Amino acid sequence: MSAPGSSPPPSFLKELTHTSAYSHMVKVPNLSSNMRLPNPEAGSRASRPGAEDNVPNRFELFLLSDGEKKVTEETDTREYSVALRSYKRRQVYALLPVIYLLLTIGIPSTSVFTFNKEDHTLGNMLRARLLQSPHVLFSGYKVPHPLFSSFILRVQTDGTLTPRQALVQACKDLVTDLGLLSREFTKEWELRKMVGESVDGGITGI
To answer: 7-16, 75-84, 161-170, 188-197: which has the minimum mean pLDDT?
Structure first.
């Protein structure tokens, strides 16, 4: 029903979409009962990668790959930029361009160890144990990326021991400390169990 005062729509507009002459110009979709429109949210969720897609498999965190070493050692080096100028009769040619040489110099008694398939647990223990040695001047580690189970440990000594010797000694000391911790924990656990059993038995006897 049209509004008062307004003229009815022309008849050709009603017949436009039904006339075969104009059928190629206007397409009216035919939605059947079994036809469903796609859900935009469902489609976006299916095509959008989630955060769990970037997480590596669990076994990649502790199993070494073929040909992969547990620990590798490299000599720590630093790059220095040295400026060279031309000298003549104790005068510097200020107008001449400065020549820079990039020198790669190895730091004495310093090594960088890369541990594969390990994380902060071992890295923090090794760093703390190495710092207890009087021959270790510096010890620090970093994890390059949280999705890769590896860390880099840098060790610098005073020259009495090599970084490898200091690291091996720290590993032996850690094994000794962990063995002592395991024995003490087991002893205390067994004592607590004995005390608990005796208390339970006394209550039952009463």
So the answer is: 7-16
